[in-house]
Design brief:
163 residues, mainly alpha, 7 helices, flat
């Protein structure tokens, strides 16, 4: 890539991810496929920014990704927050705050020590989600309100089952 356009690939990828939900339905893709493409694309861009530009290999970026997603999903499903876009921004802000606090600890080291600290922090987030906060996060089952709504909308009662 030339020095005149150092972010051309990243900008084109971001434009493609933003345009995907509008273009892919016309090509026959299901909404879940589009969601997965966008989520994994964003996750990949985050890894590229962290490792590609800074050279820091982080095994804990999923903790921040999950924190933002969990906060946004909790707001939308459990609390009944009415605005999707605002809940996404609140989730991003929560992930940024958590990332800043973790960065205060992790960025004091480099190399393998940085990678080991990020692994440990990711495991702490995993433990907290599945044990002390499982009443709020749903643990391995996910958010309880989201599961009930998804099951209700995905499987309508059939004529052969008694109601």
């Amino acid at each position: 890539m030339s020095r005149q356009r150092p972010f051309a690939i990243e900008i084109l990828t971001a434009i493609g991810l933003i345009a995907a939900p509008f273009i892919l339905p016309h090509l026959g893709f299901a909404p879940t496929t589009m969601s997965r493409i966008v989520v994994w694309g964003l996750f990949g861009i985050g890894f590229d920014i962290l490792f590609g530009f800074t050279g820091l290999l982080s095994f804990g970026q999923s903790a921040f990704f999950g924190t933002g997603g969990m906060v946004a999903a909790y707001l939308l499903t459990v609390t009944g927050f009415p605005d999707v876009v605002l809940s996404l921004f609140i989730g991003m802000a929560a992930a940024a705050v958590v990332g800043y606090l973790v960065g205060l600890i992790a960025l004091r080291r480099t190399g393998i020590y940085f990678a080991m600290i990020t692994v440990a922090i990711a495991e702490v987030f995993y433990f907290v989600e599945f044990n002390p906060l499982s009443d709020y996060t749903g643990g391995e089952n996910g958010l309880p309100a989201c599961r009930r709504r998804c099951l209700r909308s995905a499987s309508p009662p059939s004529a052969s089952t008694p109601t």
